[in-house]
């Protein structure tokens, strides 16, 4: 079998993804935006609504709050344990984040869609962390635990039924 390329990273099987998401309670989201329409905020809000403790990490908002939670500038500034380090940063920025996740004792380094740093993932795996690349934590949670429908979100708003007015 050929080695996965940066364009096609090795994908963990569904059992591994289920285990990661079922066992995790806290997610440090590096690059979490306070702007509601940004993908990082949408994913964090969804995960928070599903019982995960979201730990915002973004120097731009450090000292403030995102989704009602204090934001820190760096992973090293977190005052509590982290299960998943979810990276919403450029691929070239992942190396130091992976090193911080290892030092923090995180259990998983998760690189969001479009983020694929195989060297950082290899270091994290060597340190005992599970790794996921080029996947969205929100999409995977929804897909594996029943919140994903054709529109991508189970909002209950979209329906094939005609309204009584038509």
- Name of the level-1 CATH class: Alpha Beta
User: CATH superfamily name?
Assistant: NAD(P)-binding Rossmann-like Domain
What CATH architecture label applies?
3-Layer(aba) Sandwich
Average pLDDT = 88
Structural summary, described in words:
The protein is α/β, with parallel strands linked by helices and 166 residues long. The chain has one domain: 3-Layer(aba) Sandwich (Rossmann fold), CATH 3.40.50.720. It is built from 5 helices and 7 strands. The strands form 2 sheets. A 5-stranded parallel β-sheet has the order 2-1-5-6-7, sandwiched between helices. Strands 3-4 form a two-stranded antiparallel ribbon. The termini are far apart.
List the helices and strands and how they pair.
Blueprint: H1 14-23, E1 26-30, H2 39-49, E2 53-57, E3 65-66, E4 69-70, E5 84-87, H3 94-104, E6 108-111, H4 118-126, E7 130-132, H5 137-145
Parallel strand pairs: 1-2, 1-5, 5-6, 6-7
Antiparallel strand pairs: 3-4
Quick tags:
166 residues, single chain, 5 helices, 15% strand, 5-stranded parallel sheet, Rossmann fold, disordered N terminus, alpha/beta
Give a brief outline of the structure.
Helices cover 30% and strands 15% of the residues. With 166 residues, it is α/β, with parallel strands linked by helices.
């Amino acid at each position: 079998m050929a080695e996965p390329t940066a364009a096609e990273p090795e994908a963990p099987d569904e059992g591994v993804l289920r285990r990661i998401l079922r066992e995790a309670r806290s997610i440090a989201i590096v690059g979490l935006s306070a702007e509601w329409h940004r993908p990082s905020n949408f994913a964090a809000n969804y995960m928070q609504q599903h019982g995960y403790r979201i730990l915002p990490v973004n120097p731009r908002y450090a000292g403030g709050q995102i989704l009602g939670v204090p934001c820190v500038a760096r992973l090293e500034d977190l005052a509590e344990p982290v299960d998943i380090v979810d990276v919403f940063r450029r691929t070239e920025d992942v190396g130091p984040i992976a090193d911080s996740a290892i030092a923090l004792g995180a259990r998983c380094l998760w690189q969001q869609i479009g983020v694929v740093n195989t060297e950082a993932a290899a270091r994290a795996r060597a340190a005992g962390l599970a790794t996921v690349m080029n996947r969205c934590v929100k999409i995977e949670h929804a897909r594996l635990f029943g919140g994903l429908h054709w529109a991508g979100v189970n909002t209950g708003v979209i329906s094939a039924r005609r309204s009584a007015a038509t």
